[in-house]
Amino acid sequence: MAAVTKRACNPNEEEIDLRRGPWTLEEDTLLIHYIASHGEGHWNSLAKCAGLKRTGKSCRLRWLNYLKPDIKRGNLTPQEQLMILELHSKWGNRWSKIAQHLPGRTDNEIKNYWRTRVQKQARQLNIESNSKRFLDAVRCFWMPTLLQKMEQSSSSYLPTTLSSQNSASPSLSPNCSAPSISLSTSPPSKVSQIFEHPINGNSSSVRSPSIFSSDSLISQLPQTSERLTSPTHAFDHTVYSSSPALNDCYYVDTSSGYAYDMEGLNLDPASAICDFNNQQFDCQMTAGDWMLDNMTDTLWNMEGM
DNA sequence: AATATCCGCAACCGCGAAACT
DNA sequence: GAGTTTCGCGGTTGCGGATAT
After folding, report:
1. d(C-alpha A193, C-alpha A175), whole Å
2. Which end of chain A is less crowded, N or C, counting CB atoms within 10 A of the terminal residue's CB?
């Protein structure tokens, strides 16, 4: 039951009972129908004209975060999680800006994801979520694991003729200035949304932002052949090798058929050991290191990661 | 089975920027 | 240019379901 408060916007106006709390189906219907026929904007007058005893602010929030038709619901895909991690490393808590690059996702949803999932992991590791250390952790383990899931999903999801080709695997292209999660072959038919590289964009696909620049976190991921020594590590050369078609950079969202959750990921601790010869990052893994100590029971077994 | 605790998410709040008068 | 209104953003809260005890 939504709370009701007495409020007078203007001393001359009669007091209006303003509802608060969860929206009812009736209110949702009113708002949807009103916007369908009159459009959105001018939220305060919209609330009054639609017969909603809500603030314009509340109506706007309800519409943008929940009722808008193109809102995508369900778990964030690995691709989306990866993009959030990447963009947050660049922009910080600019949720709305980050959300602009994730069609169908709201800033509120992304913010909640960051606070409930990402910051939780940082807390469990006793490191600041905005610290370089945590960024390294994200870069060295979280992102590769997401990429692994993307690789696996694309392999199982795409037709075998496609998935058997290296070029069809999501590839990290260190030199790619556009989204570096790429498919260099024609996008599969089941791909729901494709962000094309700007120089190739010629369809109705949503244009991708130019993220994942050369100095981005992803481009700083350790090259598999150089730094990942475990034979069981899931990242083979197809993940990190340069795509022969660097210009063909797609962001592939397979969410239409999948609902991934980090919690479902299971990374063998042994496979997470890095040997960073170049020591570019301070997340070198040796027995007794802070991260290794923690990874079996927090971040790196992916329970809750 | 009952209670406590945890967790995710929708909704609210305060503030600053932009638009309008 | 000043004052007011509207909009949008980021931070926070609180509810309800899930899980643990």
Report:
1. 23
2. N
